[in-house]
Amino acid sequence: NAGVMQNPRHLVRRRGQEARLRCSPMKGHSHVYWYRQLPEEGLKFMVYLQKENIIDESGMPKERFSAEFPKEGPSILRIQQVVRGDSAAYFCASSPRDFDIQYFGAGTRLSVL
Amino acid sequence: GENVEQHPSTLSVQEGDSAVIKCTYSDSASNYFPWYKQELGKGPQLIIDIRSNVGEKKDQRIAVTLNKTAKHFSLHITETQPEDSAVYFCAATANTGGFKTIFGAGTRLFVKA
């Protein structure tokens, strides 16, 4: 049973470009969470999604950031018009049901030049 | 807003000694408390968790205690080994409709051989 898969592992973008981060949850998991981690810091919650629904996006910046988890395919975290401050590691986690153990992927490290 | 404080930020122990990491949380609605271990360049891995109806849980060399009255929970690692060296994160989750998980800032554990 494959774990949570995130790609790409590393992503380099220039200021103003768009970044798309993908997350395929563990088989059988329908709940996905996105977190951001700055160097030497903990994980900051961004958004919690179930299939085709955003449950909690209270940690998402109001502009430029969006997330989706379509009926088919991976969850996508999209950052438009990236700025240097967006450089961070972005982690995705999945769980089989509400309020259950979250399993993390290896993360996508975004660098904005 | 909700907050989880974690101490110490850095902990150095001799191989074979015990290590204790402490966390306090602010949201009284929190009732699920996982602990994660993160190695360099990898995603967080769950090592143990505890729910609010339990005061203590043990799994081999790892144990967690919870004091809901004081809003305090701790991770105990006995007979530490060099491979225990990593960053450890505590977290608190409240099932209040948002299912948001708040992480502590992390403890960097060094186990000296």
What descriptive keywords fit this protein?
heterodimer, A: 113 residues, mainly beta, seven-stranded mixed beta sheet, 50% strand, globular, B: 113 residues, six-stranded mixed beta sheet, five-stranded antiparallel beta sheet, 11 strands, 58% strand
Describe the structure in your own words:
- The complex is a heterodimer of chains A (113) and B (113).
- Chain A is built from no helices and 11 strands.
- Chain A has 113 residues and is an all-beta fold.
- In chain A, strands 2, 4, 5, 6, 9, 10 and 11 form a 7-stranded mixed β-sheet that branches.
- In chain A, strand 4 (31-37) and strand 5 (43-50) form a beta hairpin.
- Chain A is globular and about 35 Å long.
- The model of chain A has no long low-confidence stretch (mean pLDDT 93).
- In chain B, strands 2, 4, 5, 9, 10 and 11 form a 6-stranded mixed β-sheet that branches.
- In chain B, a hairpin with a 6-residue loop joins strand 4 and strand 5.
- Chain B is globular, with a radius of gyration of 14 Å.
- Chain B starts with a strand and ends with a strand.
- Classes of the chains: A mainly beta (113), B mainly beta (113).
- The A-B interface holds A 4, 6, 33, 35, 41-45, 48, 55-56, 58-59, 91, 98-99, 101-107 and B 6, 32, 34, 36, 41-46, 49, 89, 93, 95, 97-106.
Largest interface: A-B, 24 and 24 residues
**Structural class based on helices, strands and sheet pairing of chain B:** mainly beta
- Evaluate the radius of gyration of chain B: 14 Å
General form of chain A: globular
Low-pLDDT stretches of chain B are: none
Name the average pLDDT of chain A.
93
Total of DSSP H or I helical runs spanning 4+ residues of chain A:
0
Please report which band the strand proportion of chain A falls in: under 5%, 5-15%, 15-25%, 25-35%, 35-45% or over 45%.
Answer: over 45%
Q: Roughly how much helix do the residues of chain A carry, as a percent range? A: under 10%
Shape category of chain B: globular
